[in-house]
Structure formats: C-alpha cells, structure tokens
Amino acid sequence: MASRVTTFIVVLIVVGTLIAGYMVGAERADEDGPVDLIITNAQVFTGGPGGELAEAIAIRADKILKVGSNRDIKRLRRPHTLTLDAHGATVLPGFNDSHAHLLSGGLAISQLDLIDAKSLDAIKDAIRTYAGAHPDRPWIRGRGWYYEPFSGLPTRQLLDQLVPDRPVYLEAYDGHTGWANSKALAAAHITRRTKNPPHGTIVKDARTGEPTGALVESAMDLVDAVGPQPTRDEKLQAIRDAIALAHTFGVTSVQNASGTAEDFGLYDTLRRNGELELRVYQALSGTSSLTAADLDGFDAVRKEFPDDPLLKAGAVKLFVDGVVESQTAAMLAPYATSKIAGTPAFTPEQLTRIVTSLDARGWQVFAHAIGDRAIRMTLDAYQHAAQVNPASDRGRRHRIEHIETLDPADLPRFASIGVVASMQPDHGDPAPELITVWKTTLGDERASRGWMYGSLLGAGAHVAFGSDWPVVSLDPRFGLHVATTRTSPNGEPDGGWIPNEKISLADALRAYTAGGAWASFDEQRKGTLKPGMLADVVILSAALFGPDAVKVLDTQVAITIFDGRVVFDRAAKPQTD
Question: What is the pLDDT of residue 10?
Fold first, then answer.
C-alpha cells in the first residue's frame, strides 16, 4: 500500500513538473517570437474593473501580447520592433463609439456646418459665407443649427434673404427638425394644402396656413427625397473621410445606429480594398410597419455579414419617440409649456409585437427613447419578449439609446431586465441655453432627471457611451468631460448641473471602451488592454491619473493604433527610443 502511495506521489510530481515545464517553455517560445510594437513609459489604463494601471504594452501582429512593467516589456524588444515612448502619458483601449452615424457624418464634412454658430448673427454669417464659397452647388445642404437663437422655430423667409437663388435645406443639430427656404419647399411640392405625413409635422403659419419652412420628424423626408442624392463614390469617400477623422480622436470602433442593407455593401467594398480601418457594427433601420418579409430580408443581411471583428450585422434600430426641444419626446405627463405629452412612433402593442418578433429571431434592438414614457414602453416590450421567447445563443443585450429623461421608478429595471443604457453625455452639455429650455419645457422636477448615467451605473446597469455624431462632435473628450464634471467646456454652471450624476473618470472611460464592447457583444476581443485582445490602442498627450494628471479637455490623442498598426500620429512620425 505504501509503495502504491509513493508511486502515485512520484507520478504527480513528474506530471506537474512536465506541465510546468511545458507552460514555461510555451511562454518563452511566445516571448522569443516576433514583437512588432511596444509602448513604454506609459500610464496604461487597462480598462479592467479594478482600475489597475500598468507601464507598458507589447503587440504582436493585431493582438496584444503582454501588458506589464517597463522592464518586462522592454526585454521583448527585437531589432525590428517599433518602440513608442509615451513619456508618462495615459494609454487607453481604442474608443468604441456606441452610437454614431458614420455615413451621414462623413457626408456632412463637406456640407455647411453650423455646430459652432451659437447666435443668430453667427448662423447668418455662416450661411452667407458658405453659399458664397460654393456658387456652383445647386442646393445648399447642411446641419447643426440650435433652437435657442430663434424665437420659436426658424423660418423660410430668413433663408430666402440669405440665399435667394437656390434651394437651401439645413437640419437641426439633433437631426429631428429641418429648415427649408421657399425654393426647397417648392421643389418638394410642400404648400398650405400639403398634409402632415405620419409621425411628422409641416409647421404652418397660424394666420395664413402657409408652411413656415420648419419640418419636424418624418416631414423632413419630403425635402430629403427631392434634394441631390450622393453617388456611390461620394458615399465611399465620405466613409473614408469619417474614418480619418475618427483616428484623430482615438476612435477605433463605431456602432452605427441606423442604416440600410446597401450601407453594408459600402463598408464591405472598403473592407475588401483594405481601407476599412475602423470596426463597424451596423444596425438596420426598422419602423412600426415591419413585416415578416422585412424581417426575412434582415436575416439575409445578417447571414451575409455574420459576427466578424471588422464588420458585422446583428442589430435593428427603432425610433420610439423624438426629442425634448421640439416636444416630440414621449412623456408620461404633458410638457410644462403645452398640453401635449409627445406622441410615440409606436403604440405599446406595435412596439411589443415588433420587439418580440426581432427578439425571437435573435436580433439585438436599439430603441431611440428619450422621454420617460418612451423609455417605459420600451422596457415593457423588452420584458415581454424575455418572458415569451427563449434566449438566443448569444443572449439578450437589448439597448435603449439616449435615455435623456428617466422616471426613477424605471431605474432598477435596466439591470433586472438586462438592458444596455446607451448614452451620449455630450448631449447633456449644460450650456445655460439648454438648462433654460429644459426647465421651461419640462419643469424643474423633470429637468432634474436629465442624463442619469450615474444613477444607472449605481443601479447595476451596463452603460455604454457614444457621441451621436454628427449631431455633436465625434471627439470622446467632450462626452468624458460632461460625464465627469456635469459642466460645459467653459466650466458652467459652477459645481455642475445635476452634480449627483457625475461619475469617475475611470467609469467614464470604461463606458467609452469596455462598455461599448459589451453593448456590441465584443467584450471577448476588445474594450480592454490584456493579452489576446485586439491591438486597438490610444496614446494621449498627457497623464489623466496621478499627481501629474491634466483635465480631459487639456489633453489630446497623440497616436492611434488600429489592428497593431499606427494609423494616426499627431507628430507625423512615431516617437521612438
């Protein structure tokens, strides 16, 4: 008996030694192989839940090989290894923008941009200047105007004065209201007799009945349909331009919040040409009239573009309501300045039916829901789908987009149902004009419940941050600043608007990286910096943590690495040691 025990112990020791030797040998063989790029002297924010910081990273091909100390990583350097010295700056996972519109943003780059025109005079000057600089364009198209400079909504007469010789059509910054001059209205055959389309409003003069030039929600489509349409080559170039811009901001992944089957063909063309240097999770757009045939078409797109690190389908976007500023967000109680509460684009029955059908087929749903009523309707629909359908192989991660004004009673439902809170903190940039509009439109109590990402995180919800570009800037710094300070870039208001919703910088960064990866079923390959993850990495110009930390807006992206390759270098050449 003793001899058997002795033999057994000896066998265990031998086997253990062999396994340990194999593991050490494998690690040595791994480290003895090629190392293409290392980053040293860094403050590496790995994105893990503990907020741990490392000093250096080693990259092989398109994957992270090792994260550790300067000493550990520097000894992996080989003659061909590119070494980037971060000089003490913070290094992050590539930003994952969980809500953007890449194609429309790229097209907008060459159009009139009013995003920085905050006064009526500035808007007028920008329109005149752009029209004068582009005399050959048959239409003037653009976006970005704010509601606040106008007394009510803008009018066609003002645009007629500024550009009398051709059609002009400009979208508001939020994409929910259009502004057309008389020539654009005539081209779309919009007159006093034109009826409102479903879920849209042609704003008309109360005295004359004539269209004022403001078009709300689906009424915007009437002018969009007759304006010049971009060619396929123009769309491809717009996406290239958008990718180049994304790199300057450290954005390496984008979740497109709406789109068509044709859009996939554009991205696939760039992918086959080796030009898609951005990871794209593309949603398809759905409406309240979705049929089984439509869903079959969606399924065909998903079959053609299955899960892939670079381009994939898997989500359907639904617009449940509008926005607070135009009083089209669906609210539980009427707006403070009117007797209306906003009409959702779906009845509760329609929304539940469509969500349940999509869920049964394994689709992830992105639901645009800003008002508290729209949010509750969406949570109800998600809860019903989970009760009647078995979960798909990848599980459920349905999302609500924006969540600007939430009833506190629905706060815990995000975690209990498993709904992702996909939010864009830069929308809540608390400029004095926004605070005034919110308090006037919603009343003080509801206005105090704006952008509750702090409460959602505290309640255990998965929070993912994005920009909603081109509605606001694609630059993540602005959203990070608002999320952590609840102030505008110039520090207003003192102490922050609704300061109890502030979150830590680490939580904000995770929402823009790991949170985005979770929201697109990609946490197994991106969103954190650890061995085996895709080598999408951002080097900033300064440190965000520790005694030498600077404010988010006082740093910028120095280098963006995508798939293990430097795709943007602000200094035009790598800083090597």
Answer: 43
To the nearest 10 degrees (0 to 180), the angle between helices 292-304 and 348-360 is: 40
150 and 282: one domain? no
Cα–Cα distance for residue pair 442/334, rounded to 1 Å: 8
- What percentage of the chain's residues is helix, strand, coil (to nearest 5)? 35, 20, 45
Structure tokens at 389: 């359908």
Domain assignment of residue 300, yes or no? yes
What are 228's two structure tokens? 């010049």
Query: pLDDT, tens digit, for every residue of 537-572?
Result: 999 999 999 999 999 999 999 999 999 999 999 997
Instruction: Return d(Cα 153, Cα 145) in angstroms, integer.
Output: 11
Same domain? For 309 and 417 the reply is yes
Are residue 285 and residue 425 in the same domain, yes or no? Answer: yes
Tokens of 310: 């670079």
Instruction: From 160, 195, 224, give the residue that closes a domain.
Output: 224
In terms of C-beta distances under 8 Å and separation of at least 24 residues, what long-range contacts does 46-54 make, across chains too?
A: 46/93, 46/528, 46/529, 46/530, 47/92, 47/93, 47/509, 47/510, 47/513, 47/514, 47/527, 47/528, 47/529, 48/528, 48/530, 49/510, 51/506, 53/545, 54/529
Whether the upstream peptide bond of residue 493 has omega within 30° of 0, thus cis, is yes
Mapping DSSP onto H, E and C, the string for 411-447 reads CCHHHHHCCEEEECHHHHCCCHHHHHHHHHHHCHHHH
Beta-bridge partners for 43: 90
Same domain, 443 and 499: yes
Question: What does the alpha-carbon distance between residue 325 and residue 521 come to, in Å, rounded to a whole number?
Answer: 33
CB distance 34 to 60 below 8 Å: yes
Angle at 304 between CA 301 and CA 307, to 5 degrees: 100
CA 392 to chain centre: 25
> Which tens digits make up the pLDDT trace of 499-524?
999 999 999 999 999 999 999 999 99
Write the single-letter amino acid at 161.
Q
Taking the CB of residue 174, how many other CB atoms lie within 10 A of it?
22
What does the chain come to in residues? 577
* Chosen domain end from 205, 224, 243: 224
Rounded alpha-carbon distances, angstroms, from residue 421 to 79, 288, 319:
46, 22, 15
255 within 8 A of 102, measured Cβ to Cβ:
no
Total structural domains within the chain:
3
> Model's pTM, two decimal places?
0.88
Cα–Cα distance, 309 to 283 (Å, whole number):
15
Residue 11 lies in a domain: yes
**107-165 pLDDT per residue, tens:** 999 899 998 888 999 999 999 999 999 999 999 999 889 888 987 899 999 999 999 99
- What's the pLDDT at 575? 44
CA distance 323 to 220: 15
Buried b (16+ CB within 10 A) or exposed e, 447-476: bbbbbbbbbbbebebbbbbbbbbbbbbbbb
Q: 121-142 burial, b if ≥16 CB within 10 A, otherwise e?
A: eebbebbeebbeeeeeeebbbb
Q: Is 29 in a helix, a strand, or coil?
A: helix
Structural domain of 25: 1-29
